[in-house]
Amino acid sequence: MSAWDGMAFEGKETMLRVVRREAELFFGMVGGDDVWEAPTGAGHWQVRDVVAHLTDTTEAYFVAFDAARSHTEVPPAYGLVGMAERVDKQALALRDVPQDELVERLRTDFDKVMGIFDALGPDEWAGLTVPHFYMGPLPAFFYPAFQLMDYGVHSWDIRQGTGRAHGLSGEAADLLVPFMFVLWKYTTGAKDPCELGIRITSGPNAGDTRVAVGPDGMDYEAGDVSGLPAVIEFDPGSFVLTAFGRSNAGTIRGDRAVADRYLNLFFRI
Length: 269
Description:
The chain is α+β, with helices and mostly antiparallel strands. It is 48% helix and 14% strand. A hairpin with a 3-residue loop joins strand 1 and strand 2. Helix 1 (12-30) runs antiparallel to helix 4 (99-118), helix 2 packs parallel to helix 4 (99-118) and helix 6 (142-161) packs across helix 7 (170-186). One of its GO terms (molecular function) is metal ion binding. It holds the Pfam family MDMPI_N. Residues 33-159 form the Mycothiol-dependent maleylpyruvate isomerase metal-binding domain.
């Protein structure tokens, strides 16, 4: 089980292996002559904008790890509320970079950041605090997870743009399950009181989680969900895509009004 917990050092090897596989699948999709300006499932972004976004994001990680290693003070976190607008501007600013040049730049960035992750030891995986531009100080293990989100979910976006039926990688979805609760916690909008259960039905991170939203935000913990007004069941892939706003999925057990209110609490990043 610990091998599938990306927040623990025991899960490092699994996490980095799956990140590398998802990245190779991504690079295999973005190098073709006819894909650069193709639509995606990421709003108005074309394939070239997705590549630009990953480039911009990865290069920000170099600044973050340099600051963490040198104990350099950084500006306060930008915050998640304005993240979607800013990352859009950052991506579109690279639209005119030629395809070969930008893809090669991202490949070089990817190799460099994976070298940083490979070097993280057992004390640093969760013990090194790295300042994220949008979220502020985070344990180092979040950064490989963010790369998995980027390469896994944005690969889904590119496949979505083709109009063909497809799905999300099982291993990527399994690893991302615990991080989706964190994503929800930090993107909670309206905070009207709400309590319900989330059940992940399969995979190594399957289980029940009690979720409570109130004026101070969202809290969650593993536990018995019987007796709660509603439970929403997800397989791992549906959970990830729902948390990222790519789909409206889930099986509602109990009070639909409670489940609907909860599912509409979040702003998109």
